[in-house]
Amino acid sequence: MAKEMTLFHALIRTHHITSRKKVAHLRKAAGKLDCYALLRSGGCPGIMYCKGKEDAVKEWVATVQVQYQQPSE
Known about the structure:
The protein has helices at 20-33, 54-67, and strands spanning 8-14, 36-40, 46-52. It is of the alpha+beta class. The longest helix has 14 residues, at 20-33.
């Protein structure tokens, strides 16, 4: 019998996502953490959605928080 994996989700709404560098960093973090991330950038509002194992989703959200404490480039 296969073990069932519980998926966790995070949905983040922000004013906007315009920094290509930040978007690239968040995509890279999702790949490294083995979770799925969907980003809506360029307009208002900015939407970020993440799905994966609990630890991966929490770490990805922490990465988002760090990125958005830094000034945009």
